[in-house]
Protein 1
Amino acid sequence: MIISTLPDLGGRAFEVRGLVVAHAILGALGGGNTQKMVQQLIDQAARFGADGIVDVRTVMGGDSGHCVMTGTAVKLV
């Protein structure tokens, strides 16, 4: 599984399979939820038949420490 912030795949083409999303409320130092969120993205991408995730974005905010991660599941061709 490729996780990248930029869809720079060395000249390889890819087919977009879908959007993947994870949400959590982070405690002090993330409380291990960050790793669980990444795993959620990977699991969702696998259900789409994707073998990579590009354009991963993370947004955090709010008084209770909400965190949302999104990415685009792709199949390398």
Protein 2
Amino acid sequence: MIRTALVGAAALTLLAGVGLTSYHAGSSAAPSMTLVAQPEGEMGMDAMMKMMQKAATPGKHHAKLAANAGDWKAHTKFSMGPGEASEGEGVMSLETILGGRFTLGRYTGGFAGMDFEGVSITGYDNAKKQYVSVWADSFGTSILYMTGNMEGDELVLTGMAAGPMGEHEMKIVSAQPDANTMIDTFYDKYADEWVQSGQITYTRTGQGEHDKHNEHGKQGGMGGMGSRGG
């Protein structure tokens, strides 16, 4: 089924690239199609298929994320204002989905005396060569989209966070001291200055199926950045 989808996508791309169809709105006749010879030197179907399959194949970056599949407890600490901070506890589960291409995170806990839950999907875009992450939670109706890369031993993701006062730039720095500990540090940008707003420390409480059956579960990875609970 995956190969069929790739072939279909490749065919549509090829058709669009050489302008094969013309359709006039309101006409009762079926759309007409005229094949145009592929210019010499243009990418052929086989080369296009190989490129698409390479972009769709999980690699070392995906394995790094998948290494953290399992259950985690979380301790949160976020600033509520100058000299004010709110601490809380939560739990997170991480699992690999779509053939190891992404990790799905589910977070539940408390923040400022209220129940809180969120969901994340995190992966690595082979074509763009960067990590990608989306997050949604019970405290809002917007979706946070972040992108980034490794900087030394830390994964740095940035995106635009929406709030009642509008959007502002946000950054999450994810570190993993060992295979059983992850630390996410949160920053918000105001007046061109990054201000630390909070931190979540995750401690592993159980292994996922990936860790039980795969050696790179012992290598450590990055997975907490998809869980921005409070």
Protein 3
Amino acid sequence: MKIQNGYMVPFGYGKYFRSDAIVGIEPIEQDRGIGRRTKVYVEGLMQPIVASRTGGIILRDILETDENTTSDFIASVQQTEMLRDIMESIVDIPPMLRSIINDQGGWDLYRLEEQMKEMLDETPAN
């Protein structure tokens, strides 16, 4: 993978940093939400920048994507982040509504949540 030197990467809400100055990307696990998706570590700064964009999108912007392996890697990261977002939404559904969804739509959200947890545990660290 090759970093696009000197390219400005948007972090959301008007925050931009040079791609070659970014040294790390970490998804926010707790207190994640709108405007708080990813911690981005930038060379020369003591604290990470909180980005409103997901790590996969930021990574896509940092890297040249003309190679298939890079595109596949980025797609995998994005899919994992989307699965994590869906699981976070399902966790917040109260039991009564889960029961209605199961009865009316045939979706067992408890089983679905467990499957997503298993898949995310098996996903290699990015």
Protein 4
Amino acid sequence: MSKLTIAALLLSVLSAAAAAADAPEPTPGPGPEELVQTSARRMLTELDANRPIYAKDPAKLDALVANVLLPNFDSEYAARLVLGQIWRTATPEQRKRFVDAFYHSLLRNYGEALLDFTADRLVILPYKGDPGDTAATVRTEVKKSSGEKVPVNFTLRRTDTGWKAWDVVISGVSYVKSFRTDIGTEVQQKGLDEVIQRLETEEAGGGKGAPGKSVTG
């Protein structure tokens, strides 16, 4: 075998090794589109089977949303974005309480909207993403009773434990950004502890404490 041939073989081996090293690590669990599809299917199937029960019992509806959404939602990451610089100065206890309150606020704001969702009113649009992406947006459309189609997009990020959703954007309005605007002003005026207390009180009473854009009608 000539030296030129040996050199070519070594070059090809090294190139293959470099390509393997540069390849993104496989992400555990389903991809962004499959994650949204599976969650939506589970939610709609259960709602269609027991819609009157969930309509009468908000606690059961919250439990359903939490059971399906919680494992797939990066509530701490979203809460950190909402608080911004305030997160850095918050105590561990404040952070934990805010994450919990923020997450339950999300459940309240979108739980009731789910009551009007049926399989024929929710369409998941084709996903356009690259396997190496670390962020993704899965676009869906919800058809209102008036016939209007409302875009409802889910923003996700790739983590060590798989893809996680962290924001919902309805008709171009980001839940996280809207919440951050309102919370930021309120924290400056009243302080973080009082804001957390308000959210926790609303959680216990079933009130709505965060901005949301209805997709029902």
